[in-house]
Amino acid sequence: MAFFISESSQGEYVMKKILSGNEAIARGAFEAGVSFISAYPGTPSTEILQTVANEYPAIHAEWTPNEKVALEVAAGASYAGARCMAVMKHVGVNVAADPLMTLPYTLIRGGFVLVSADDPELFSSQNEQDNRHYARFAKMPMLEPSTSQEAKDFMVEAVRISEEFETPVMLRTTTRISHSMGVVELGGENGCRTPSLERHPAEWVMLPANARARHPVIEERIRSLKVYSDASPLNVMEMGSPKLGIISSGVAYQYAKEALPHASFLKLGLSYPLPEDLVRKFAAQVDELWVVEELDPFMEEQVKALGIDCHGKDRLPLCGELNPDIIRGAVMGIALQDGDQPDLPPRPPSMCPGCPHRSMLWALKRNKCFIAGDIGCYTLGFLPPLSAIDTCLCMGAGINHAHGMATVFGPGKEKIVAVIGDSTFYHSGITGLLNLAYNKGAALIVILDNSTTAMTGSQDHPGTGVTVRGERTVNLDLENLVRALGIGWVRTVDPYDVKQTRKDVKEALAFEGPSVIISKAPCVLLKSRNVPGRALTVDTDACTGCKVCIGLGCPAIEFRDEKAHISDMCVGCGVCADLCAPGAIGGEK
Amino acid sequence: MNVLMTGVGGQGIILASDMLSEVMMRSGCDVKKSEIHGMAQRGGSVMSHVRFAERVDSPLIPFGGCDILLSFEELEAARYLKYLKKDATVIINQYRLAPPAVVSGSRKYPDVVPFLRERTPNIHLVPGTAIAEEMGNARGVNIILLGLLSTLLDPPESAWYDAINSMLKEKIRAANIEGFKRGRQIKIQ
Questions:
Q1: What fold, for A15-229?
Q2: Residue A1 scores a pLDDT above 60
Q3: What is the pLDDT of residues B167-180, one digit of tens each?
Q4: C-alpha gyration radius of chain B
Q5: How confident is the model at residue B188 (pLDDT cuts 50, 70, 90)?
Q6: Class of A537-586 per CATH?
Q7: pLDDT tens-digit series, residues A508-531
Q8: Cβ contacts (< 8 Å) between A176 and chain B: which residues?
Q9: CATH class of residue range B2-184
Q10: Interatomic CA distance for residues A453 and A463, integer angstroms
Q11: Nearest CA in chain A to B167
């Protein structure tokens, strides 16, 4: 999108652009002089690194295999004096929590910003955790933008605070900030720092004696930041009617402002550590005080701990996103007016027509396997009619679930299988497979290798041989990696070959000891896909209406007037044709 | 002004709402737009809120606040009734994409117009997909519907071409401008 020049409120000419919160954070990183960014893809954070890779060539950008690696490489860049950023979704911070909890003990040289993109309402996540707790837990300051403009500006401020206080800083967004678009006035570049080698063993070698000495430093730092927070221009009082005062942050502030424009607001941009004096001052000026925040009563409990009475989660929901109507309803004490909604057939997301996961899941299901799942598109195989996923906990858990279950059942008792995508396997499946081999497990692990990180929109990873900027790099040999971990039975199969796939699954299940099937076929959304792309047709005279093809759950096959029909969405993968006993499916239109 | 665009993942709703936002920013408005990415791209329901005014706070349209609903698919037009203003303008592209329960034969595809009529009399069914197919590219339905939408909004026709020229790659510009013009010719009362 092109820049657009217009006049600012001060009468100067400014460059304006409509940016998503994620694009604005990337722009902010550029303006702040960040020179190193690492991330693992995860909705709603993914576009931050992608924007950097596409638009800011001077910044080093890398997809790392997981968030722990992302955080640690960025910390290395900071120790070397470079400004840096590690980007991840909320549950990704759990993966990075080990280094994160000790990083504030260490000396930060180049500004270090952790971007945590939370997902209230679970649009694309396995839980709804509120990562603001991490700021308090790790004792680091946190900024919460409420618009795209603030996403950019706060990113610059986060780098500044990080260097001034020698601390990592958390920039916390939510789906509605990351994926909403808004008008952003662009700023200039602040310039990068030149890296230099220094040694700070007392601050960087976290063995007990050094860490013990550093703990009081971070306690003192968070005290200083509390004072700083009271005076920060990011925390502002906007006095309206003294009858109602609202403390809010992030997108909840925008909702509350829309719902209750005449109220007084204490808007917190630097929301941890809480500006306690400012909160006291604001509370003293209003008759009724509310804390309006999404998910947990993070600020509310701190306000109450100051001895200040307020409303909040006594009337507002703990679960899901807020919106202007929920807030107005809660504060005004009126029931939500959303009217009657007709009972319409739902339209959940599903695996694409031609998706290579479908036939593999179907083959496992036919063998009556219990299928421990993982995080990726294949989790959608949970939906009927396929109903092929039996567990999904977090990245990498499926292999371990399968091993635990298969072990307690004993050899040959139940058919316990795990499915895991290639990107998820590199993220946190390798250690599980190592454990399975080491502890003499017996489960079958199917690696659904579609040569991309599909769920988040096709990002490269160590198995694709391409970097985030499209440069060629080492291409991991998955089959050899699996063998090296100690798995004796490994086979790469083409899941579109339905007959052979079923045979291979049977053989793998019969093998005593752990086995791995690599189900290899590129994602149908990739340009390199190997399906013909032309729709098949049904000979309705030959179709017996047996519904076997419907059992695949392919969105392109519709059951109408007791017959199967194939729509234009079909890409011609041919799996349904292979399953069709009367041979009614075939040909091209 | 609040515009809600609805449809199914893959119909080009995001690009259409991006373009609307760009045009309104260029005409001097504050603009906010919100939609959900991620899983919605896998053939799920998609909803994009576009709000423009001198100042916009919430990126989400309040219930009862939507002035224009532009639905790329028939069923999806009735999924978000609570957002409609009384007398909102509803434009529905005549295109039915069966959701899973209809595909499997367990539900019938509903006629949504009666539900919408309870909220507003201003309902217009338009043959966007048929026009796109006639023009040789069913995926061009988004620019055709955007052309129609543009006739209901203040910015001059030229502002839309400026946005198309700045946002689209050169090789697809001419086809999009042609589609946009065809959309502007669709007459609604």
A1: Rossmann fold (3.40.50)
A2: no
A3: 999 999 999 999 99
A4: 16
A5: confident
A6: alpha beta
A7: 999 999 999 999 999 998 876 656
A8: 34, 59-60
A9: alpha beta
A10: 10
A11: A1
